[in-house]
Amino acid sequence: xxxxxxxxxxxxxxxxxxxxxxxxxxxxxxxxxxxxxxxxxxxxxxxxxxxxxxxxxxxxxxxxxxxxxxxxxxxxxxxxxxxxxxxxxxxxxxxxxxxxxxxxxxxxxxxxxxxxxxxxxxxxxxxxxxxxxxxxxxxxxxxxxxxxxxxxxxxxxxxxxxxxxxxxxxxxxxxxxxxxxxxxxxxxxxxxxxxxxxxxxxxxxxxxxxxxxxxxxxxxxxxxxxxxxxxxxxxxxxxxxxxxxxxxxxxxxxxxxxxxxxxxxxxxxxxxxxxxxxxxxxxxxxxxxxxxxxxxxxxxxxxxxx
Length: 306
What we know:
The longest helix is centred in the N-terminal third of the chain and has 71 residues, at 25-95. The protein is rod-shaped, with a radius of gyration of 48 Å. Among the domains are: 1-94; 182-296, Glucose Permease (Domain IIA) (Distorted Sandwich). Helices cover 40% and strands 25% of the residues. By secondary structure, it is of the alpha+beta class. The relative contact order is 0.11.
């Protein structure tokens, strides 16, 4: 069906000029519809964009909430690790203190004994290979911190074992005088007190009164109690790490074989048994089966002279 056409007449009264314009209705309606629909389309587009932006914001908000929850959890874990490290450092610090006299005595022990106590060298733990410049996300930062804290924990564990071994060696080091009295004979070559001939004295003789107490010079266990030839009544203590002490010419014993003793415990009394010319204690120290001069290990004041 053909479109209706309309004629528009415009007349100028002053000049009498008349102008006519013929238009078709359909194009006019189409153009008018397009003009009127543009604001509607713009509004619909804006509404869809706003809805999309809101959805994106909601998704971002949920992602941020999950990320924040993850960060809070990671922070709590790191806080727990740091608290644990602080407690471990405090404990190691408390256990690492040594009596200066015992520390000096330990330094004089044979290298073989000290190496046995420390258990040799320990391979260093692996450390984090990533650097701060390579950190791209907060997850990388938390991961690096966690790795570093784990490395510190591992190293503290090594230090703790070292302190325990060192403290055990300190307790096992013969460092006090085994009896009160006076030093009547040192270790080394001397004239035999009975025959007058050349003799090698294997320890110290500490003279004293009959029945004076004899002390364990370090922590250890009793491996021998009984009469043993020239030693007379003898006690032998094993301190671990290859260290051993012997106490001879005793009047009697206050310990039994297999007993555990601490430094300063009374184990017997000064006597005159065996190959002896008077009341005194014969004292020996051995490291890995070899005699040591006890004088180099004693940290207390020397006994009084006769």
